[in-house]
Amino acid sequence: MSHPISQGKPHQTGSALYVVMISCAAALGGLLYGYDTAVISGAIGFLKTLYNLSAFMQGLVISSIMIGGVIGVGLSGFMSDRIGRRKVLMTAACLFAIAAVVSAFSTDVTVLIGARIIGGLGIGMGSSLSVTYISECAPPRIRGALSSLYQLLTIIGISATYVTNFLIQRSGTVAWDTTTGWRWMLGLGAVPAAIFFFVLLFAPESPRWLVKAGRSEQSLAILTKINGEAMAKMELKTIADSLRNEASSSVRDLLKPGLRKALVVGILLALFNQVIGMNAVTYYGPEIFKMVGFGLNSDFSIQAFFGAMWVVFTVVAVFLIDRVGRRRLMQIGSALMAIFMALIGATFFFHLSNGFWLILFIMGFTAAFSVSMGPIPWIMIPEIFPNHLRARAAGVATIFLWGANWAIGQFTPMLLNGLGGADTFWIFAAINVVCFVFVSMLVPETKNKSLEEIEQFWMRGTALMRTGSSAKDANSVQKANFLR
């Protein structure tokens, strides 16, 4: 399908509006991820009653979508290198829409689990490629803010879904919710999937993928509209040189010196995005609130409130990421999250049953997550890999993200039942401490760097990333310690 962008006249200056629009189009994949993350928390209580689910089966219903997600992520890099980022994202939208409809009409838990695995295929593809697409289009000075749009749309999807769950739950009796209400919750997921597919019809392909596919003329037209004519020609040459130097690349290149460290950092960022505890609260929020005495109506209304707060602080993150820097925000956020998780555990240990302190500490944890380990790993994972391996490398890292997501979904109810709230949340507090140490010791700063500069950093081992300095300052910092 041709696009107007490839036919237009050269622009002397880039269009900020244009790059924001195409970034928003790709970021809509976050709506799918956000919808699925939140919708099951509203449905699981009714499914537990309807199908008499054990703790293990509750975990399997929730985590089944992550099984598909791991497969989808694994396929996404190779598929997108062959047919393009945009087509794979459109496929992801179709798979999720199908899964939403089948889930709504499922007649037993086996069919529901199968549908959620299909939906996971779509979300896995989208979660890996949406931010990759944005990072390959966005200018370095605003790449962090634009890449964080994926997380912002994810949180908007979560917040909107919490409200939707609340409204559906209030639309009938508990008996109606148990037999029918949850079907509406799951089935409405077809709506964001349809929006995502429609918007992608008008989006261009990634300019970096077009160069790799031998379509440099189209790539230049897109880069010109983004950066202006002069910068577009320079960037096209840089991309072409990078790809030419690695024409015979394979995923095994990630195990070479330099890129091996990038792979380790990418995988650990993916793991910590999931295992620090936010998804435990997201998936099982109503069940956690019930443990301290909240009723059914208040469970849903509290989650709707948290969703709105999550949106606000993710917007704050959009403005901070390219100003404060990725690494500093993750250090501050992980330290605060460790403190709040320890305090959440304390509310269970001391049996503070009125719930006020639990809500307050979860608010603090959510705010810290929203400006740090929520959006930033999604931004950095595609940033830190070179052009010729970006989609596949981001796919490898995101497989670990989805695997960790599965583990949280599967085992959280078993931890809560077996260990209780205090020990469960203290475990998450300890994980956040480990996350702080990892960020402080291994994660470089990529603020204000072009993707090609970041690639050279890993290959040459310079200290360029530590301070966020530009390429022209490389000589003055090359001998500095990497993380100091």
UniProtKB/TrEMBL annotation:
| Record-annotated membrane-spanning stretches | 16-35, 55-76, 88-107, 113-134, 146-164, 184-203, 262-280, 300-320, 332-350, 356-381, 393-412, 424-443
Q: How does it sit in the membrane?
A: Multi-pass membrane protein
Among InterPro entries, the record links this protein to:
MFS_dom, MFS_sugar_transport-like, MFS_Sugar_Transporter, MFS_trans_sf, Sugar/inositol_transpt, Sugar_transporter_CS, XylE-like
Note the superkingdom of the native organism: Bacteria
**A Pfam family per the record:** Sugar_tr
GO MF annotation: an example:
transmembrane transporter activity
Q: Which GO terms describe its cellular component?
A: plasma membrane
- What GO terms in the biological process aspect are recorded for it? D-glucose transmembrane transport
List each copy of the Major facilitator superfamily (MFS) profile domain by range. 22-447
Main subcellular localization, coarse class?
A: membrane
Keywords for this protein: Cell membrane, Membrane, Transmembrane, Transmembrane helix, Transport
Q: Where does the protein end up?
A: Cell membrane
Q: Which family does it belong to?
A: Belongs to the major facilitator superfamily. Sugar transporter (TC 2.A.1.1) family.
Write the protein's name: SP family arabinose:H+ symporter-like MFS transporter
